[in-house]
TrEMBL record:
NCBIfam families: PRK00068.1. It is a multi-pass membrane protein. It holds the Pfam family UPF0182. Residues 868-908, 951-972 are annotated as: Disordered. Residues 880-908, 958-972 have a biased composition (Low complexity). One of its GO terms (cellular component) is extracellular region. It comes from the Bacteria. InterPro entries: UPF0182 (IPR005372). Belongs to the UPF0182 family. This is UPF0182 protein ABLG96_07705. Its main location: membrane. Keywords: Cell membrane, Membrane, Transmembrane, Transmembrane helix.
Amino acid sequence: MGMRPGMGIPTMSRRAKRVLTAIVALVVLAILWFQFVSVYVDFLWFGEVGFREVFTTQALTRIVLFLVVGAVAAGLVLGAMVVAYRSRPVFVPSTNEQDPLAPYRIIISSRPRLIAIVAAVLIGLISGISAQGNWQTVQLFLHGGNFGKADPQFGHDIGFYVFRLPLIQMVLGWLFVITAICAVIVAVVQYLFGGLRTQGAGRKVTSAATLQLSLLVGFFVLIKAVQYWFDRYNLLFSDRSAIFTGASYTDVNAVLPAKIILMVIAAICAVGFIVGAILRSVKLPALAVALLVLSSVLIGGLWPLILQQVVVKPNANTREPAYISKNLDATRTAFGIGDDKVTYVPYQGETAGDKTDIVKDTDTVPNARLLDPNILSPTFTQNQQLKNWYGFASQLSVDRYTIGGKTGDFLVALRELNTAGLSANQQDWIQRHLVYTHGDGFVAAPANEVVNGVPNYRISEVSKPAGFVPISEPRIYYGQLTTDYSIVGSAAGDPARELETDSSTYTYQGSGGVSLGNLFQRLVFATNYSEMNFLFSSGINDNSKILYNRDPRTRVEKAAPFLTTDTKPYPAVVDGRIVWIVDAYTTAENYPYSQNVLLGDATTNSSQSRGAEAQVNKPISYIRNSVKATVDAYDGTVTLYQVDDADPLLEAWKGVFPGIVKPQSDISPDLRAHFRYPEDLFEVQRGLITKYNVSDPVSFFNNSGFWKVPGDPTSDTTLAQPPYYLQVKLPGEGSSGFALTSVMTGFAREFMASYMAASSDPETYGKITVLQLPTNTQTPGPAQVQNYFRTTQEISQLVTLSQQPGGTKVLFGNLLTLPVNNGLLYVEPFYIQGGASTAQFPQLNRVLVWYRGLVGVGSTLAEALVKAQPPDTSGTNPDGSPSSGAPSSTQSGGQPSVTSGSVVPPSNEAGARAALQAAYLNLELAKKTGDQELIGAANKRLEAAVTAYLGVTSSGLPSSTPITSAPSSSTG
């Protein structure tokens, strides 16, 4: 039987080749088109906001880096391959065994030039793409100056570490990698063609291969020697010590000398490799490698380890303080918590005076904010939404306004467009993007005024632009909820299309947006959003514009990519315009001896569990709030203002992008009056102050005097209590001021340790005051006070009832702390929310206070203070259930009895509360019997008691202090 002839490799017809070429070309063009669209859309946006220089400078720097690094990398790789290929042996030494490398040699030998070019271009592309992401490092190197302060170890200006060292280390690292790649390529080529062998008789390495590899490895080791020199500076960012960042005793006395010794050894080894290359000998290079490896292990690794374990660890309290002192100084300077920024004031913490005196205090009681911005967004939505396509941010903001000559705190929010609220028949493309395009109005509420359980709203809107405060344009086109794009603008003579109410429409007149007036622009955006309606919709005409990147924080981040924005932008009415104010930071990762902090971790608190944005979790060792940005809510204009004239980082970026940051002199008095001390910066600083309030390095090492940021006792999480904006009067000040405040407790205690306030008033902006309580204080911290509140009979009953199926939901508001009479006053609003319907929303029901060991619950702050008495939890167990002190029904013989009768509607609050407690106890007793009929009857009795109780209490829901009889207003 004959062998079947083998089948040859199938060939493609000429037509098939043309089709395949066309398909490949189309795919390439499609990829290039999508890349172009992505870049062009950004280009158009930067032009719209007037920051095109940022786009072009950034793009040009990236392109130059890509081309330079890519070309150098490709050239070095190509040169290494060409030299290795041309110096290959003419004849490959043969062995008796089959050579597995023969097929690869044939492939390379058939097209050596093509293969070399492709390999070099590929490595060049990878190198260029990797390098272009370092555009900020290059620009800071070119424009960075000095900080005017030297590091304590080497005496270099801080600017060397922030601006110059990163680029030096980047270049050395890149050369290190590319040299290693070239060495590997040479070794592979020589191995494939017999210049480097592992088997067979005779010499295993040719002279050419020895020369090339020795020179490359010698250069490689020489680069390492230079790296050792610059690695010394990295010791100033060492995290060897678990206590502080910076060079420790071991780093200075073992690692630093080791780096210098290793540098010398590496330089000697590099010479050894070069000499070996000249002599065509591998012995000297081999000895050099052995010396380098051995010295690295012994000198660079083992010696510091021995010193740390034998000398430092047993005596750290005497060895490390000198280095801790350097960390203390650097950290305080880098994070703005030094003596020039922070004032520590001894504070007794033992309140003097009677509780009734507080009621008469005109500085304290009016400033106790009863509206919690983290809770009341649903209340704003329910009362002020107007239309389903409007909404409010999940986190409201706190600001201050002067009305009638009196400055007070207000909860503020914008009634924004919220496309998530559109109904099913409002969800088509035209309505989502051409009809529902904007919000309407500025909504504010005095932070301490409540009418019938809800805020006393003040409104400025389209129908009443001169309401709360006069606004020239109340429409909101840019905001936190408007994340989708809108298309605005009508042709001359066409009717207005943008809906405001059920009957009124509007056409956008602002300068924001990018034109859709030609087919090319429409094709670009059709591609970008994968939406063909851009090309075919009759609603788009020559006057149409598209609004995108509408979130204020996003706009600032794109316009100024060198800044890190605060996570809590807030709206304000400034000079008759609604603007978003966005705090922005310059940050650095390599400030010598400054404590390394993860920004995201340092700014995490319980508000994130309620929907607040989280900060990027990048390491920083320097931060400044050098820029305040505004974003106009109508036309999207982004403006950057410099507010710190002593920030070298911002000065460097101003050199990169001249003119984009306006000077302080351009800030209007009205805008400056609405500046707040930023929350993210405050949280970073308070976390550091818990440790860096200690000045003695030995005490710092022993954790003596440390504080901690308490957890939020009103949250279901263990996350930190967020800071709160309040009007507070600090000791020694003549009047109250608007400040961002926080409390801190002892390091391993729940008692108060300090009270921190950062001023937001223009005259004292940025001044941080820390009221420092005695170390032996017994003033309770937030967790203890919250426990007092929860275990009061009145509150514990409401909490217990809320746990019943379908029960009314209870919400503990922000636990505020106010310094008063040389002590502290705790105030907490308590809200209820009906659980039977989604239309229910939080309403203020009670005010809770703690003062001088007294706990009060009342309908107003004044009433709570007057009623304050020593904590009494005899009527409840710690979990809130009735204890033996609670009223009960008993049968003869002392056994409890179950009542199945109905509830008589009480005529007053005290009777309603007693009936509620009795009904709850009745249900507990019924459960113990196991009788389903009794349990059902008891449940009905409890439901009736709850209804009766809410009926009595809701008819008299509290006003806050000062008590107001003004009706709920939407007119301002």
